[in-house]
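Researcher: Good morning. I'm working through a list of sequences from a screen, and I'd like to move beyond sequence-only analysis. For each chain I'm collecting a predicted structure so we can compare shapes side by side. This is the next one on the list. No need for commentary yet; just the structure.
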Amino acid sequence: MSLRETNISLPNEFSGLERICLTANGNLQRVLSSWFNKPVIVQLIKNVSVPICHQKSSEHSNPILQKYDREVNLICESKVVCNAISEVIIHDSFVLDLIMNKGVGIGQLFRTATTWWREYTLKIIGVECKIKEYFPNGMFKNGWIEINNNEKDKLINGVQELNSENK
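Model: Good morning. Structure tokens for this chain:
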């Protein structure tokens, strides 16, 4: 396998769509909605604030502000298509306000009007890569690739602004 090749090897008993679901990170609701071509809603079962062991500021430059144990069902046509159990750890006061006071869901935290993104870490002994990938909204719509450069520039500027805000 070359350094530029991706290979995720899962057992053969999983179908192609099951493998996509198993590798989806933070966007499973959209994947399932796309597959069923119907709305998939989030049914909140549990969202419990968990006590935080307070850290000394010298130990952690990015302290935990809030922690939740969360459980939701993803529902399509009155059927549970997924049950998700999460531990949500919040380090940023702006994000805490979005969740507690503005009704923003977990998946919505990774999308704006012009972009969506994901962050992940690749790690082996001796090296750790923290990666942020930004994508313009609408890029999978027919004709998007042909839109004029002024529109593309707006999208690129939105990504750059978002990237500078998240640093």
